[in-house]
Structures are given as C-alpha cells and as structure tokens.
Amino acid sequence: MRTDARDRLDALMGKLRPPQTPPSARLRAGPDRSNVRILVLIGVLAAVVAAGYLWLARPRPQPSAGPLPSATLAHVRPAASANPASGPPVVVHVLGKVKRPGVITLPSGSRVAEAIKAAGGVRPGAKTGTLNLARKLVDGEQIPVGVRGPSPIAGAPPPSPDGSAAPGTPLDLNAATAEQLDDLPGVGPVLAQRIVDYRTQHGGFRSIEQLQEVSGIGARRFADLKPMVRV
User: Fold this and answer.
1) CB atoms within 10 A of CB 184
2) Which pLDDT does position 4 carry in this prediction?
3) Which residue among 55, 103, 107, 229 is least crowded, i.e. fewest CB within 10 A of its CB?
4) CB 106 within 8 A of CB 114
5) Where are the domains of the chain?
6) For residues 165 and 159, is the Cβ–Cβ distance under 8 A?
7) Looking at domain 87-145, which CATH architecture does it have?
8) Model pLDDT for residues 171-221, shown as the tens digit of each residue
9) In the predicted model, what is the mean pLDDT of the chain?
10) Residues 6 or more apart whose Cβ sits within 8 Å of residue 200
11) 113, β-bridge pairs
12) pLDDT over 90 percentage in the chain
C-alpha cells in the first residue's frame, strides 16, 4: 500500500520537474569565454587601425602663395665704406727723446701720437710736454719730442705747402729732404744722403756747427753752406 502511494508521488513529481538539458546541448548553447575575449580584442585593434588611417588621410592646409613679407622684399643698401680713400702718405721727421728718431712715412691722416709710436715711443722718463698728440700730421714737418723745436728766423716767410723753403730762406737741416739738400751748392746726392743719415742717427741737428761732423763736409764747404742752412 505504501509502495503504491510512493510510486504515485514520484510520478507526480516527475511531471512537475523541468526537462533536463543534456551537457552537449549546454556547450553548444554558450560560446567559450576565451573566444569572446579574442573577438573583443580584434575589434579594438580594428578600431585603432581605422582611426590612425583616418588621421593620416586628413586634409592638410597648403601654404599661401601670396607675396612675401615686405621686410624680405626691401632693397638692402650696401653699407658705406668705413675707410674712405686715403690720400698720399706723409713723411715726417721725429727727433728728440724717442727710441728710434728719424724720418718716418705714415698713412695720410695719421696723428702725432702715431708718429711717436712709429719712432719706438718715448724714452723711459721722458715726457712729451705740450706737444699736441691728437694733431694730424703734415707732410714734411718735424716733430720734436721732449726737446725744444727749432725757432723760425725772425722775418722769414713761412715755408711753402710742399715743405720746401721759400727762395732766399735758409734750409732747415732737420726737415729738408735729401732732394732739397742736393740743391745746395757743393752737395751732391751722396753727401745729401749722409746728412740725412746723420740726423737720423743723432736725433736731428741741434746746431749748424754739427754739420761739420758729417763725412765730406770740411771747413771750406761748411763756410759756403752756413748762410744757407738753419736748425
């Protein structure tokens, strides 16, 4: 009796239970999780590649073909020459308390200070005194450094612009060139050069009598030259 009741109860419960799905059917119904991850990763990579391609293929603005800035079209003028054309060189005689007294050739427009520097500079302990070092040089002039310059003869006309003495004026032994000395009576080119060499070696003539110390000038020739020269 109990067995029959139990059988009927089991049969009733069997009707109420949902049908069981076999394992193979469950595997076919849902994909594996690893396959889903691979599909998602492929989709992300495809999206990145598409975005990069669109970024590279974007239109870019072209440079304008308009006129150049005015600054580049402006005419550039050549700078003016800082050194204008210089004139002929000047020849001066530097004497006195310098290391290398003598006749010096300098470019046109040079100053007294440059002449002293070309003569080796002032000797140790010597001074230039009231000498204007900034004055421009004049061709044929004499620059006494630390000594008293030759005094002009009273009533004598000033020298001509070319440095030669006026007619009838004694010739300055410290400023005359070899060509001017050659014009003196009894003085040829060789003796004129000896006079120039002597004043270069001794820093100029301090008296007319020193002319007798030049080789080739004896008492008789000195007597002829004395009224024609000065210092």
Assistant:
1) 18
2) 67
3) 55
4) yes
5) 87-145, 162-231
6) yes
7) Roll (3.10)
8) 889 888 888 888 887 888 899 999 999 998 988 888 889 999 999 998 888
9) 74
10) 101, 102, 103
11) none
12) 18
pLDDT at 69: 46
C-alpha 198/C-alpha 211 separation (Å) is: 9
CA angle 13–19–25, rounded 5-degree value:
155
- Beta strand extents in the chain (DSSP E only): 90-96, 102-106, 142-145, 171-172, 229-230
Say how many C-beta atoms besides its own lie within 10 A of residue 24's C-beta: 8
Q: Which letter does DSSP use for residue 142 in this model?
A: E
pLDDT digits (tens, 9 = 90+) for 34-79: 777 888 888 888 887 778 777 777 776 665 555 544 444 334 343 4
- Six token digits for residue 95: 């004497």
Tell if the pTM clears 0.85, that is, is over it: no
Rounded Cα distance between 162 and 180, Å, is: 11
pLDDT tens for each residue of 89-126 = 999 999 888 899 889 999 999 999 999 999 999 989 88
Question: Residue 137 in contact with residue 92, Cβ under 8 Å?
Answer: yes
Both tokens assigned to 190 = 């060789």
Distance, CA of 150 to CA of 12 (rounded, Å): 159
Which residue do the tokens 């994909």 mark? 31
In the sheet that holds 102-106, the strands lie side by side as: 102-106, 90-96, 142-145
Q: Which backbone phi and psi does 95 adopt, to 5 degrees? A: -135, 170
- Percent helix, percent strand, percent coil in the chain, to nearest 5: 40, 10, 50
Domain 162-231 matching CATH 1.10.150.320: the answer reads: yes
- C-alpha span between 225 and 171 (Å, rounded): 10
